[in-house]
Amino acid sequence: MERIVVGFRRDEAGHWVVMLECGHERHVRHDPPWMVREWVMTEEGREAWVGRVMECSEC
Ligand SMILES: [Zn+2]
Prior knowledge:
By secondary structure, the protein is mainly beta. It is 8% helix and 34% strand. The protein is built from one helix and four strands; from the N terminus they run βββαβ.
């Protein structure tokens, strides 16, 4: 299900977690070369995702 991104937070380990409108959360790791999500490392990159849709695997 596609859900709107409402914000981001860091977990206890310092990894970025995206918060979705449905209340679910998912990790958005930047862990090259497996997971390349450089955008999550910058404030601008994260802000650009707020209001956009991301697939929620729990919905
Ligand atoms: Zn959800």
